[in-house]
Amino acid sequence: MILRKPDFYDQFKCIASRCSDTCCVGWEIDIDEATQEVYRKVAGAFGERLRANIEDGHFKLLPHDRCPFLDKDNLCEVYQHLGEDALCDICTEHPRFVEVYGDIMERGLGLCCEEAARLLLEGEGPLTFTREECDEPEDELDDDDRDVRDQVLGEREWMFETLADQGLPFAERLYKIFGYTGENPFAPFESANAMFELLAKLESYGPDWDAALERIKARIDSSEPIVDQGFFTENESVRLLAYLIYRHYAKCLFEGREQGKRQFALLFWNLARFFTKELAGANSAVTPSPRINTKINAVKILSKQLEYCQEIMEIVEISLDE
Fold it and tell me: How many angstroms separate the first and last alpha carbons of the chain?
């Protein structure tokens, strides 16, 4: 099998307590059966505490959806007591994701993680990918399915190459891929208010998103023009758009909505650049690098809200799939 990864994948390492956020708050943490079996055998007071905080295959979250084993320094007590091998699958893998298309496996890092977002945005030049052989089992595809797979991946490769073509003005690259001219800067919607209306009808992942949505609405309702806030460079925009296409476009093989998945990348980018400060909120002032942290936090909160719920992705893609 061929394994494909983005150029920053192997650089990733969790920054633990140095992260301004934590992936152990705000999410239901499922525990796979093999790990539950390990936890059943842990002796002593910590073993008793482990089992007392598991219910229906997941950890019982504390107030504010905090994992019961996240200490005051935002470090994992399971890791401290039992080691990395004792972590459940989701804690071991997050924020990594994997997709398999026959004899092609693709891995990546979710942008809900601020370190993953930083690595993506700080990379030099257009996004590239590594290819290597791996021993993972492949999915069976008949000849017809393989042909369709190759056609979809070929179309996606053309998008990568077009985005990376620095011989073309950036505006021309956007037009070739998305049909985006800038005459309506809020495309694929007619206005900033139409973008907000879509966001407002989605189920919220939590208070941070609710607050961001209020800030976005206040800006739209003000007399201040809605313009690109100027945080994202052309290179960062190219890398972000390419990465969103990488993560989502090929899933049309299973789910359809080819145009919706393509336009999702454009929507995400437009939201990130028009409402950077509103999305980042108080985190926009984090030091020592407030400008990069503002971008990271804007991308992170958008990713958390839009990319981690299948129902939300379906609603958004259907609205864009014309």
Answer: 35
| Stretch (H or E) spanning 3 | strand 2-6
Q: Tell me, what's the pLDDT at 223?
A: 85
Query: CA-to-CA distance for 228 and 273, rounded, in angstroms?
Result: 5
Give this prediction's pTM: 0.90
d(CA 211, CA 267): 20
Q: How many angstroms separate the CA atoms of 81 and 316, rounded? A: 42
Q: Return the pLDDT at 286.
A: 44
DSSP-assigned states of every residue in 68-103: TTB-TTS-BHHHHHH-GGGS-HHHHHTTEEEEEETT
Domain ranges of the chain: 24-93, 138-320
Alpha-carbon span 261 to 314, nearest angstrom: 9
Q: Summarize pLDDT for 15-46 with one digit per residue, the tens.
A: 877 888 877 777 778 898 989 889 998 999 89
Are 265 and 274 a contacting pair, CB within 8 Å? no
Find the helix or strand (DSSP H, E) in which 107 lies: strand 104-109
Record the tokens describing residue 253, joined without a space.
Answer: 């093989």
Task: Give every residue of the chain whose pLDDT is below 50, as ranges.
Answer: 285-288
